[in-house]
Design goal:
By secondary structure, this protein is an alpha/beta fold. The strands form 2 sheets. An 8-stranded mixed sheet has the order 5-1-6-11-7-10-8-9, sandwiched between helices. Strands 2-3-4 form a 3-stranded antiparallel sheet. The chain contains 9 helices and 11 strands. It starts with a helix and ends in a 7-residue tail after the last helix. It is 35% helix and 27% strand. It has 2 domains: 25-119 and 231-268, Periplasmic binding protein-like II (D-Maltodextrin-Binding Protein, domain 2, 3-Layer(aba) Sandwich); 121-229, Periplasmic binding protein-like II (D-Maltodextrin-Binding Protein, domain 2). Residues 35-271 form the Solute-binding protein family 3/N-terminal domain.
Length: 275
């Protein structure tokens, strides 16, 4: 009996040790290597994209670099597909995800949310020649959204944002057809061809829509009509609560000292960081 008890005690101790080692795995790896690998997007201006010099730039890139700076480590970027970025089970390939990810109940099952770093209102985007003046004018029309995103969840009436204090989602639009696209800019490329040529409207983040318009796309948004307002979070793999907590503390510091306000204003022309 005593031997059995001793064996059980040893087993518990080993399990506890293994858990403790795992709990700090990402934090230990990043601080040990003095390097952090961030998963993000490569074609989503102004959040993150390749510039003319083939270098990653954008709001999410600046946020990543600032987090790395405050950790005292270098940073490099990987650009997996969206499902991989938000699907967790990274197996050490990435240390952090900075890709303007919305915290949802489904994603909370596979990834951790280190902290909300800004907010994005989603807008209804039209061709400039569209006669539509309100959301109801889009009922029965062809709506474009990026696939596997909150805009698709919204148009399919399946959106469940996992963040406190947000008002309930209101569904006012009854689409005639939903068309999905693998990239955030592809719906705009179809919409720019003309009103109703391929699409009647796109649902997308205000920041992305305004940036497209700034870059010459013949589009406009329905004024004072938002689909929903979403919080955007930095994400981490469900493997290291110490790492998630550390990054969350840095995000809080960046919000409190005005860094996030400065960065959102730099890239979007206004402060999207306020709670």
């Amino acid at each position: 009996m005593r031997k059995l008890v001793q064996q059980l005690a040893i087993g518990v101790a080993v399990l506890a040790f293994a858990t403790a080692v795992q709990a700090g795995e990402t934090l230990d790896r990043v601080m040990g290597k003095k390097a952090m690998v961030v998963a993000t997007n490569s074609g989503w201006p102004p959040q993150s994209y390749l510039d003319d010099n083939n270098e990653m730039v954008g709001f999410d890139i600046d946020v990543s670099k600032e987090i790395a700076k405050r950790l005292g480590v270098g940073v490099s970027f990987e650009t997996p597909d969206w499902a991989t970025l938000t699907g967790g089970r990274w197996q050490g390939r990435y240390d952090l995800g900075v890709g303007s990810v919305t915290p949802t109940k489904a994603r909370a099952q596979v990834i951790d949310f280190a902290g909300i770093y800004y907010y994005s209102p989603y807008v209804y985007v039209l061709h400039k020649d569209s006669k539509a003046k309100s959301v109801t004018d889009l009922n029965g029309k062809i709506i474009g959204v990026e696939t596997a995103t909150t805009s698709e969840d919204f148009i399919r009436r399946q959106l469940e944002i996992d963040a406190p204090g947000l008002p309930p989602i209101e569904y006012k639009l009854e689409p005639g057809e939903i068309r999905t696209f693998a990239d955030s800019m592809l719906p705009f490329d179809d919409l720019r061809l003309g009103d109703g040529v391929r699409l009647d409207a796109v649902i997308a983040p205000e920041q992305t829509a305004l940036n497209a318009i700034k870059n010459g796309y013949p589009l406009r948004v329905i004024e004072r009509e938002y689909a929903f307002k979403e919080p955007l979070a930095v994400i981490a793999e469900k493997a290291d609560p110490d790492w998630t907590k550390k990054v969350g503390e840095i995000i809080d510091e960046m919000k409190e000292d005005g860094t996030l306000a400065t960065l959102t204003t730099k890239w979007y022309g206004r402060d999207y960081s306020a709670d």
